[in-house]
Amino acid sequence: MWNGYPVVDADGHVIEPGTLWEQYVEPAFRDTCLRVERDRLDGDRLIIEGRPSRLIRRLGGVPYDPEQPIHDWNTLQLKEYASFLESSPPASYDGAARVRWLDEQDIEATLLFPSLGLIWPREVDPASPYAVAHFRAYNRWMADYASADPGRIVPVGQLSLSPLLGLAEEVKALDAAGFRHVMLPHGVTGHLDTRLDPFWAAAQHHGMVVHLHKVAVPHLLPLPLPTSVHSSGPGAFFNHVNEILPGQLFLAGLLDARVPDRFPGLRFAFHECNIGWLPAWLERAQESYETLRETGRPTPDHLPHHYLYERDTFFFSTGLGERLERLPEELHSRVLLATDFPHPGTPFRPREEWEPVLEGLPAKLRPALLGENALRLLDK
């Protein structure tokens, strides 16, 4: 409890240990599975199908210290680097240690997402048997991790949009393993077509919340090749400013495909896309709805604000850096607190760092942000 209110971390992370896939992947993929290769002179490497990752520069570097901010391993310049394991917080790979961390931070529960699993799927065919086997291995490991306290550690499962799979069966298997939350399947590109309908239907049937994490959400912009929003030309400022775009684009995509109309029992949570843009976005969405209706073109069944104000369908996590004082009261029920622990730049003492922020918020917003909204997602 913080100031008498229950607290739920809506966006926490594990850091997958280097031995996860060797222990949990199906035997047919064990020889080529993901693994971590020790390199004390340049930092440990993630090995994917026998080659170093192109997107993950380094794993580890400085031994973890709970009294110090978490380092960005990629920017370190050292003569010798600590191993990936000793650089990772025990709470990131051990369920019992995570429960102790929750106790220390007075946090009631946490939703947990992968770390390496947000990145490595971009280096392989996410619909391949290799990727599918690794998603399943992660889910098995995550179920074991969460068994330390299933009421407080809430795992978010991973799936692939593979033509070789029955998505309904994959969701059913997650449900049988105790998962109530699932990420958008990897492999969605370009637009939301009917290939996803079996997934939406199964998620709704099993009462699962669908999570859209910034790094793993497709941008869906119909840009002609070779134009790309992932161009290497823009700098860090450009990229950081526009990290909210996946949330904006995917929200529009869901309404455009009428997913909330066709599957009204579904709930969605957006992470690391912020929420402060929603009022301006809704104004534009209302204008678009009215313009398209006047010309007889397809629209969602309802005005856009209906889905945000009148339904308990969409939720958006927020971190310390976003100012919420002016968030319209109608959106107070949409916002979730997120620590992003244990990624670099995240609060390593969340309660201490959030307290001054909470003091400046409207009184009714504090309990909603801290846990009331998230507890609805957890059906508590």
From TrEMBL:
Membrane-crossing segments per the record: none
Coiled coil location: none
Pfam families associated with the record: Amidohydro_2 (PF04909)
InterPro entries to which the protein is assigned, alphabetical: ACMSD, Amidohydro-rel, Metal_Hydrolase
SUPFAM superfamilies (UniProt xref): Metallo-dependent hydrolases (SSF51556)
Record keywords: Lyase
Protein name as annotated: Amidohydrolase family protein
Organism, scientific name: Sphaerisporangium corydalis
